[in-house]
Design brief:
- Belongs to the universal ribosomal protein uL30 family.
- Keywords: Ribonucleoprotein, Ribosomal protein.
- One of its GO terms (molecular function) is structural constituent of ribosome.
- 31% of the residues lie in helices and 27% in strands.
- It is α+β, with helices and mostly antiparallel strands.
- The chain has a single domain, classed as Ribosomal Protein L30, Chain: A (2-Layer Sandwich), CATH 3.30.1390.
- Strands 2-1-3 form a three-stranded antiparallel sheet, with no helix packed on it.
- The chain is globular and about 35 Å long.
- The termini are close together.
Length: 59
Amino acid sequence: MATIKVKQTGSPIRRTKDQRATLVGLGLNKMHRVSELQDTPEVRGMIRKVQHMVQVVEE
């Protein structure tokens, strides 16, 4: 299955609890961390939810 790399570019400070939990679910919780995940609709939805704090590095 295809993978996707996601990098955290925004801080979770002053964000809602569900957005922080989404970052943790993506394997991100500190700035500039990169996580490689499987490319599934669920992961795409999580990325879309916090799209203002993450950047897709590679598809």
